[in-house]
Amino acid sequence: MAPSLYPDYPPELTTEREKYLLANLKDWSIAHGLAVRPAPSFVTQDQDPSGVLATTAPITLFPSLFPRACFEEGLAIQKAYNELYSAIARDEEWLKGIVEELVNIDDFVAKLWEIHVAVKKEGYVQELSLGLFRSDYMVHVDPSISGAPAGLKQVEFNTIASSFGGLSSQVSVLHNYLLNINAYPSSASAIIKADALPQSKSASSLAAGLASAHKAYGTSRTSYPRCVLFVVQDPERNVFDQRLLEYSLLSENGVRSFRLPFHRTLLDTKLDPDRTLIYVPPHSQTTPYEATTVYFRAGYSPDDHPRSEDWAARLQLERSRAIKCPSILTQLAGCKKIQQVLATPQSPHLKRFLPDDATASRVLRTFAPIYPLDKSNAGEEARNLATNPESANKYVLKPQREGGGNNIYRKAIPKFLKSLPESHWPAYILMEMIEPPALRNAILRNGEVQKGGVIGELGVYGVCLWKNGTGQKAGEVLENWEAGYLLRTKGDQSEEGGVAAGFGAVDSCCLV
Ligand code: ADP
Ligand code: MG
Ligand code: MG
């Protein structure tokens, strides 16, 4: 890891000042929904039998330093990334070529593909698709070149259930508030200042994306009121992150939404003969709603599908007339395998989706080297690298999974691969580890402050609404905007970064 350019950041706090900062941070966070339901290990069912307790979300005490040029570049290229991934999701033939390499070795991908094929056979009745995307990056500093400039490298691109847009908006306001009440010592004022703290508009901007789909749905098919459905896991500790989008959807856009636990889909929804999606709220069965948009905050993991009914539920939603965020094809476009194929040197794929050379080369600059583990030449080379503990140490091995906690890192890769039949290796991709600059910060998690070396991961949200199909205006992008940012920060001893998975904290940027 490169040495820090700002060894005195964050500033040391006196005991009294730390107390002041924490007292304000704890109250502000609860007062503004910067919160999560407590972990069962933190508060037992006996202590909170009716589930009323909430606690501050894991957050940093200070905004973390982030290079301004990298931040601005990440935001600037988000519209190109939206265009890229919406184009991939529209190109079923191309996607099929890649998904076919996975279906025999990855049951989850196979199931998703099966659903798409079944709906395609019957014919899709909804041509619009919505993406609430998040492109994740780390700042990379080449350790072999002293003084090498920092560049932004993409960790992954999320096309389903991109989380923390709600909490991220709040944490940037919190850090600004802490600045305004002089919780940070004046010795740091040259660094922490209002124009260095970009405010993330992600909650509002993602909600506006849902509202745009709701509006674009067109004429109602029934006389029922209309709604957006948030398809969620149950229980969900990260509920306030989602609630902040729901509240913004209602207060800023006048759009009603409901939370539908994924496992209740077949109980609480039905399809009309023309496949209009009807939602019947369990608390008020006499007032059904016509669902215009289905926003998945569940359904990205095999764990969401323990029963065969769960696959029937996904089929019902995909068949419906509601706009899906995401559609199955859009979800599949987010496979790590797609990212690897795009990153293949000299491949024609990026140009296929981003015909403008300047745009394509800007996007290309954010790709880190990623290799397949198949029988191609590049794959054979990668297999050699991955099975040798010395060379494997530079890499991370990733399956086609979402939600954190699924990757295998560095020296653990050879042993892991040995435990797997070789025929399954192509279900994984091998990615070079990005080497971010050394930073320090303090994280409040479960009431405890942890201080030390940290690693930051920038997420940039994007909203994209487009038209699929073959008819008039097929392929047209109706809406495309950058939708704010997220900074997640984790201890530098952990390879994983998921906040919900217990590794990281929600943070905001202090641009330098
Ligand atoms: P998921 O879809 O499960 O979030 P990711 O690809 O984001 O999978 O990987 C999870 C975490 O692993 C990231 O948040 C990051 O902390 C770490 N990680 C993944 N790829 C890299 C990489 N190339 N270099 C460094 N860290 C990585
Ligand atoms: Mg992901
Ligand atoms: Mg991730």
TrEMBL record:
GO terms for molecular function: ATP binding; glutathione binding; glutathione synthase activity; magnesium ion binding. It comes from Glonium stellatum. Binds 1 Mg(2+) ion per subunit. ATP binds at residues 156, 336, 398-407, 409, 431-434, 457, 490, 496. Mg(2+) binds at residues 156, 158, 402. Residues 227-333 form the Glutathione synthase substrate-binding domain. Its EC number is 6.3.2.3. Pathway: Sulfur metabolism; glutathione biosynthesis; glutathione from L-cysteine and L-glutamate: step 2/2. This is Glutathione synthetase. SUPFAM superfamilies: Glutathione synthetase ATP-binding domain-like, PreATP-grasp domain. Pfam families: GSH_synth_ATP, GSH_synthase.
